Amino acid sequence: MEGTVRGASRGKKVHVVAIPYPAQGHIVPLMQLCLKITANEGYMVTFVNTEHNHARMLQSQDGQGLEAGVGLEGISEKNIRLVGIPGGLRPELHGDPAYVVAAFESSEKLQAPLEELLDMMKQNGEPATCIISDVLVSWTQVCADKMRIPRIAFWTSSAAVYHVIWHMYTLFKQGEQNIKVHNVEFDCTGGMVSRIPGLPAMDVNDLPIIVRSGPADFIHKFLCRQLEHMMRAVAMAVNTFDELEHECLQALSSSFPVRTYAVGPLLPDDGSQRSHDNGGLTSLMRPGAIQECLQAKSTRALTNRRIGIFHEDYSCLEWLENKPPRSVMYISFGSICPMNEQQFVELVMGLQASGHRFLWSIRPDFVQGCKDYRTLLPASFLECVKERGMLVSWVPQLKVLGHPAIGGFLTHCGWNSTLESVAMGVPMLCWPDVGERRTNGRLAVTVWRVGLDFSNARKQAVGGVELIRREEVRRVIGLLMDSSCESAKYVRRNAASLRIAAQRALATTGSSVRDWNLFINYIPSPSSCVAKAQKLRK
């Protein structure tokens, strides 16, 4: 086990053990939660990754892990120690449809290595006093029960997605196999779902997979196994804020038996502020913050980036510097979302035909069955990139979204991307593929009205594959980037309003700060840990 036995004594501090689901989109927000916890005196965190993700996290720091405070000794000034345990699937396989079942199965097999780690820390005089873990690894509740310590659940997606999953779970537990759609019994294969409290009527295809699956489906059974443990958690934190999902949070609080707190948006720290601005979000939103970051003299300021498993390329910020305001379309499909080759070609050609500047964060293995997408790019598109585009494997996304040159975000609607776009007031072009991303995209377009989508009526089947054609890509990009377009003006106004709402939630008297102050009480206090240690010594 990497990083499990090195390091000096931590004294009598509250020792939180944090376990994410082993994928980038789950690791990053849990780390932000842990950074926020350790901003309080008397707390330390052991952050547990799979060995593969642990190594990737260290490598992502440009080999400057020790200088930036990341390494086997932990983040000393933040009282966080990174460790790795055996097992788990490589994160890039989590987005491959062929490995979906294997990914979930491998995450459940981490229980034995985790229990071994917990025992080792106890023997070394550093017993865990609390576990905070992703809902998708709720088998960690068993570990907490064995140690007789509290476990807090953490949900990394929208409250709406969890609410839908919990609602459907309770229906299935009650023996109901069908759901009503406009007073008609419906077997979850299509149509509109209108009976979920706190949510508008939604196409069943825009809801999480549990709605469309039956009790025999592996993913359905996996989710049910995790949810069975959830009722023994002492609390749940959600990376959202009340102003964004008020009705859904209200509905969830009346149906879910565990106290739930909206403590988001949990976003990376730009290094200039601490405490109740939730990791420097307010300072990053202010004018000139990005320019100051680029001009910073200290290595530390430039390496104070999101702690995840991908290296961030800051050169894109320099490229953005001479671009006019709102003139660049930012594109990213996240850390695991794949695309088939036919659709990739249509997207590339539509982007080229749009005539707009673009910054595309694209992984080398983004295209299914192709190790390097660049081999598929036509010469005309490469010329287009030279003139008005930039391709980079991974970017400091929050800083990109905060740059004045960004005019829109073409996104797969993963929750981290959605929440960051909302927090920075950037309108979205929603291109979700499956699962919870479809729910997030539908909310962005029809409820929050901060995004445009690609018309289903314009999809055409080519070779048996349903595609969004290049003409539609060109049309929708053109709509959002056209400053005179009424649709664009409308979503920009709404995006600006939600940005203000996010700032308000993070203010000293804001909803997220209020919920955080209630949530932190579920973690044993340093004084209670000292009292317990003194009692054991007697």
From TrEMBL:
Transmembrane segments: none annotated. Keywords: Glycosyltransferase, Transferase. Residues 13-166 form the Glycosyltransferase N-terminal domain. It is an enzyme of class 2 (transferase). One of its GO terms (molecular function) is quercetin 3-O-glucosyltransferase activity. It comes from the Eukaryota. It holds the Pfam family Glyco_transf_N. This is Glycosyltransferase.
